[in-house]
Amino acid sequence: MALTPDDVVTKQFQHVRFKEGFDPDEVDDFLDEIVVEWRKTIAENDELKTKLAAYESGEAAPAAAEPAPVVEAPAVAEPVAEEAPVASTSTSDLEPAAQSAGIIELAQRLHDEHVAEGRAQRDQLVSDAQAQAASIVAEAEQKGREERARLEKERVSLEGRITELRNFERDYRSQLRSYIEGQLRDLDTTATSSGTTPVSAIGL
């Protein structure tokens, strides 16, 4: 399907959020300029086609009215003089078409550049987010390993302290038991000695 100025006017593009790109207002203004120039070119082209059709129909009528050609110098020179505008008309007819094609190509190139830039920025944002997420995960894992190592070290230290306290308690109980047993033996020995000693010996 051929592209028309109305297609350019009614064309809607999706808005890209959170990404840099061309200013939509500037793009719309430029497309409006393209539509204006394009419509002028189409109008000129239609006018030239109308003139060419009128010229061709006016040239064919005298040829049909005259059964035999009149060989005269002015008559021969006159068609030759009129053939020049035909060539210039066809050339000028091609120029607006070339201008329209150039304008369309420029608009398409701007659109492609805008899309490519948006995709590149999207890929960069995704890459940065993935790198940041990987860094956060690695940092969290490192902190977790360090915290586990610290807790393990504290656990070993506490277990060693508990073992020392238990050994101290066992030794203390053993020493206390020995001390009490020694005191009881001394008490028994004193009581026995007091029972066999005469009263006069103890000063009574």
Description:
The protein is an all-alpha fold. It has a domain at 22-61 and 80-144. 84% of the residues lie in helices and 0% in strands. It contains three helices and no strands. The chain has helices at 5-10, 24-65, 73-196. Helix 2 packs antiparallel against helix 3 (73-196). It is rod-shaped and about 170 Å long. The N and C termini lie far apart (145 Å). The model is unreliable at 60-92 and 199-204 (pLDDT under 50).
SSE inventory with pairings:
Elements: H1 5-10, H2 24-65, H3 73-196
Structural class: mainly alpha
For the termini, the CA-CA separation is 145 Å
Low-confidence stretches: 60-92, 199-204
Largest sheet: none
State the order of secondary-structure elements, H for helix, E for strand: HHH
Number of helices: 3
Q: Determine the fraction of residues in helical runs and give it as a percent range.
A: over 70%
List keywords for this structure.
single chain, mainly alpha, 3 helices, 204 residues, disordered C terminus
In short:
The protein is mainly α and 204 residues long. Helices cover 84% and strands 0% of the residues.
